[in-house]
Specification:
By secondary structure, this protein is mainly β. It contains no helices and 26 strands. The termini are far apart.
Length: 342
């Protein structure tokens, strides 16, 4: 039931992904007497073989419950799990859509969550843990369940030049290719009305500090290649992904009808910079440095140093051409995106 905790996560099973499916039982059932809300399940198998399901929403936060691998049902009958993530005011500060993955090289579990209302300022945050059941820690060493706003922030409403922009860029799923590449899928709502949802697919990279970051552009399978300093010369659009500042009126964790369009100050907009020879950025705005071996870019813009930005080939959707992209995090856990446009 929308706007209530009357929810149910059931289990169906089949010998084939095509079915037929047989209902096997109830995993978690919630109502107005429970703290949690039984929606949005995400399951991970730990390195020790134990199964864990993460689920929940703005009602009470996100929870984790151990499952029985032989049945898919809770390891302890009736168990609804323990709290793993929550915001301070769950009626106003929306939190939902947990998605958990394991990174075998980093030996970390990553919990992706979605903040704020899905039609407008929806954005993705992430925490990590050594254990699938948590605790999950953010960029600044804070637990995701300590009711503070957590970082990094990976996606948020954005607008590059030559496009009206995308809102609602969250509620993500994570995929891993056979080659070991990571991808994020999430909704994107075409602005300005934000009523039509498209599926966005973005490649995910991991910084030297072991945090996930996503491509500023949707994935098209662009052929990977190595770049040198000379490839980076030219005009760039740089976009800083920051958290929403405007406080909206919410109903059941979602935006009220009539407030579906973004305010001007809610957009993450791109700004133009010119990378010149001598590692200078035109008009005295800073300088840049490229580490060819690591394919890593460092920028100094207006006195702020941005380190370890990951450089790769990709598609420029707004200008319909192949280009060079970068992604990374600033010192405050906010994503930094860039694309060369000339």
């Amino acid at each position: 039931a929308f706007g209530r905790k009357t929810s149910y996560i059931g289990l169906a099973e089949s010998l084939s992904p095509e079915g037929p499916w047989t209902q096997a039982g109830c995993v978690v059932k919630t109502d107005e007497t429970t703290a949690m809300n039984a929606i949005d399940p995400s399951i991970v198998v730990g390195t020790d073989g134990k199964w864990w399901m993460h689920y929940g929403s703005y009602f009470g936060g996100l929870y984790c419950v151990e499952l029985n691998p032989s049945t898919g049902l809770p390891a302890t009958e009736g168990d609804k799990g323990h709290l793993i993530a929550r915001r301070a005011n769950y009626r106003k500060d929306n939190l939902e859509a947990p998605e958990i993955i394991y990174h075998p090289d980093l030996k970390k579990y990553f919990l992706f969550v979605s903040y704020d209302p899905l039609m407008t300022t929806y954005n993705v945050r992430v925490g990590r843990s050594d254990k699938p059941e948590g605790p999950f820690i953010d960029y600044f060493g804070k637990e995701l369940k300590d009711t503070t706003n957590n970082f990094p922030i990976l996606t948020a409403p954005y607008r590059f030049r030559n496009h009206q922009g995308w809102a609602g860029t969250a509620h993500c799923g994570m995929l891993t290719s056979e080659e070991g590449k990571f991808f994020m899928v999430h909704q994107g709502r075409l602005s300005p009305q934000n009523l039509m949802m498209d599926l966005h697919v973005r490649q995910v990279f991991f910084t030297e500090e072991g945090w996930p970051v996503v491509s500023p552009q949707r994935y098209t399978g662009s052929k990977s290649r190595k770049f040198s300093d000379i490839d980076l010369l030219g005009e760039w659009e740089v976009l800083r992904v920051r958290e929403p500042l405007y406080e909206r009126r919410l109903e059941a964790g979602q935006i009220l009808w009539g407030e579906s369009e973004l305010k001007n100050e809610e957009w993450n907009l791109s700004h133009t910079f010119f990378f010149r020879k001598g590692n200078k950025i035109a008009d005295g705005k800073g300088h840049w440095r490229f580490a060819e071996e690591k394919q890593s870019l460092s920028l100094t813009l207006d006195g702020e140093e941005l380190k370890g930005l990951i450089v790769f080939a990709g598609h420029d959707w707004e200008n319909e051409t192949e280009t060079i992209l970068f992604t990374g995090l600033d010192s405050r856990g906010r994503s930094v995106w860039g694309k060369r446009i000339k």
